[in-house]
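Task card 7
Instruction: Convert sequence to structure tokens.
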Amino acid sequence: MVKPSPPPSTEAELFFKKVSGGDKAALAEALARLERTPESPETMALLSRAHHSPRAHIVGVTGPPGVGKSTLLGVVIADLRAVDRSVGVIAVDPSSHISGGALLGDRTRIPTDPQDKGVFIRSMAARDRLGGLAALTVPAMVLMSAIYDVVLVETVGVGQSETDVARVADTVVFCVQPGSGDALQFMKAGIIEIPHIVTVTKADMKAPAQAAEADLRNALIHGSGHGNEQEKSVWQTRILSVSSRNKQGTGELLAAIDAHGSFMEQSGELARHRRTRDEAWLGAVVQERYGAEGLSRAGSLELDPGESPFSRLSDVLMSLATARSKGLC
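Output:
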């Protein structure tokens, strides 16, 4: 039996209260600390505190560059704020080969009110990660999900290596552009396995958008579908056409996102999915630091329900550091 995660320190509790109170400067400081000292006791304690207070529905938004993800997110954020739902955004960008920082800076392309405490956008550099997500996406997402009602994670682009988003987000939205061949890519690249919702962007293009939607529906009929057998038998991937310019279909998109979130929670899939996400993240960090031998020496990384992967990581890294000092790994 794995021991339960210890309660967070007083410092972590006080800092978490400041961050969760809507102080954008405090949240920016917390994320900077996460990037600067991701495995320090203070960072792990803060993340564990956030992990014990999940609040947000986490939505991954993916699709090829230029499909209109950022523009769509701007409209979705406005719709969410119109009904007083707070929003955190993690925009994963390509990296500068010089500085290693986020190259495009999606926060500058998503129109929001900087004075609105109910919205926070953070760009992260993908660096050499092929899965479409930054290395610190999961910890940042856990922190932000304890503060906001909805956390949107926008990936850097889509391809065969970009399935990480399916492991971290509760709901995955895949964006397709009419007349671009995206529907064919959807069928060829195995991307049909990823989304819970598919949106054809730029629906104001009329005929090309209608053709793309028809192609996607045909792909779903002949494809292998999404998720495990239990999920496939209940949740049917939804295909919607949206136009950010005309604000067409965005209400239906939000309704579909909420419907999938309700399904995940009521079916029990949400808890299972998040624990699987936490275990995968924990294993990836251990392997990155100590390789396959260290991962093997760490033993089972299976988490008990509700156990923080950050508290477990601290224990595992301490054990492996001791083993390394003795030349055992």
